[in-house]
Specification:
Strand content: under 5%
Radius of gyration: 29 Å
Number of strands: 0
Order of helices and strands: HHH
Structural class: mainly alpha
Largest sheet: none
Length: 99
């Protein structure tokens, strides 16, 4: 950007200065777009990576709850199994991704 600004300032005719300025503005716009796209992709991948590393923890919790089923009364087992299944498979109110 600085180089384009210096070139536009040192150009003797107006046409060259205008052309250099237009190229500079287009380059700045392209840089902003690429930076924005990169930041969105990085945020999405960071979210997915977090979910990837949380999955074993969630699975270990479900297995721990399953081990405790042997210590329950037979009448309470059905409710507890239902709660375990609900905690393992949460229903989310998310919209499906637009394609």
């Amino acid at each position: 950007m600085i180089g384009v600004a210096i070139f536009a300032g040192l150009t003797k005719n107006g046409t060259g200065a205008i052309a250099a300025s237009v190229i500079g503005v287009a380059g700045a716009g392209m840089s902003a777009y690429i930076g924005s796209t990169f930041m969105k992709a990085q945020a999405s991948s960071s979210e997915q990576l977090g979910a990837y590393f949380l999955q074993p923890v969630e699975f270990a919790r479900a297995l721990g709850a399953e081990r405790l089923l042997d210590k329950l009364e037979p009448g309470d087992r059905a409710k507890v199994v239902e709660r375990i299944v609900q905690s393992v498979t949460p229903i989310r109110d998310e919209q499906p991704p637009k394609q």
